[in-house]
Amino acid sequence: MAYRVTLIPGDGIGPEITDATVRVLEATGVAFEWERVEAGLSYMEKTGDTNPLPDSVLESIRRNKLALKAPIGTPIGKGFRSVNVALRQGLDLYACVRPCKVYPGVPSRYAAVNLVIIRENTEDLYAGIEFDKGSEAMKDLDALVAKHSTKALPKDAAVSLKPISEAGSRRIVEFAFKYAKDNNRRKVTAIHKANIMKFSDGLFLRVAREVAELHPEIEFEEMIVDAACMNLVVRPESFDVMVLGNLYGDIVSDLCAGLVGGLGVAPGANVGTHATVFEATHGTAPMIAGKGIANPLAMLLSGLMMLKQIGEDVAAKKLENAIKIVLREGKSLTADLAPTNGVGTNAFADAIIETMKRRSVSGTGQLADIV
Ligand code: NAI
Predict the structure, then answer these.
(1) Residue 141 and residue 210 share a domain
(2) Is the CB of 83 under 6 A from ligand 1?
(3) 295 lines ligand 1 (CB under 6 A)
(4) Model confidence over 58-100: pLDDT tens digits?
(5) Which domain holds residue 142?
(6) Which of 238, 259, 280 is the last residue of a domain?
(7) Closest among 22, 29, 27, 20 to 2, alpha carbons compared
(8) Most buried residue, 51, 72, 178, 207, by most Cβ within 10 Å?
């Protein structure tokens, strides 16, 4: 029976890397029935719809419980709010899992990074509760702050709220410990700024400590986000599973992608109780869109995470083995990994498909090895 998966080709490089990823996933021999749906800027341009995230997209994901999504663009500082954030909040995809691993053959400053970011996906400054400069709401907020605080807001301020809940903190930290256990990881590091934000980050940290006590078999560490950034650059091999709030998780994800060779190799999954949306860490890369040179590997590795989740372990391992061979051989890498002799998106996908066909490429090995 074929797996029914919602497929969102997205904007920018999205459609190119989606086609390449779908071809490779189908070549693993696993049968998929793709339900292709559109969202984002390209959807708005094509249809004239003013809503970049039609209900039909959410319904499709709710029905299929699995989605493979390419990036969707968000206007900066104006225009509609992020479709990506709306999708995560709308489907309550509360945990973003982003493995960062150095594959031999990928140019990187480090040889031994193998960490996993668990980012809270629904709260924090991404809640979308904002008050604009000079608005009526800002006047009310000014009055509220004056009543309850010794501080005052600057008269020309705009404000974004940072809600962090006890329940939201507990479920993301519990998710991180469960992930660590299920994947034979040894340590969870909670990242925070509770020295400054004593209530919001303080709550997150207190809950993290409580949850850690319930899992004595997993080492627990806590670290202030700025120190974590320094430590990640100096000794990234000391990190294992990291659990972070939404904003720190977003920023540290790109930092960690940089540790393992760049955004072109950083996959991810947005996990909820009822559905999972697999998507790379990177965005729509508008500068290279339409040129056929984008690296589809991050989306493909996200597809590999999907194979693992649905229990297609042999196909997942076979695909990972083929990816490792192509990366190690270094003859068919895209320009982000091989600036002087890069190949196109499709040629890279073809190289993986051809490698999977080789009899010597097996579907065996440690599954824990997979992203
Ligand atoms: P970006 O991730 O699109 O690009 C950053 C840099 O990485 C650029 O130099 C780009 O060319 C390169 N890059 C990214 N993916 C690549 C790939 N697969 N192969 C080769 N090079 C790649 O980030 P940027 O420019 O800040 O954002 C562009 C748009 O993407 C914005 O509208 C942003 O909101 C959106 N975005 C969407 C995300 C999503 O859909 N989940 C996540 C991040 C950004």
Answers:
(1) no
(2) no
(3) yes
(4) 999 999 999 999 999 998 888 888 999 999 999 999 999 999 9
(5) 127-162
(6) 259
(7) 29
(8) 72
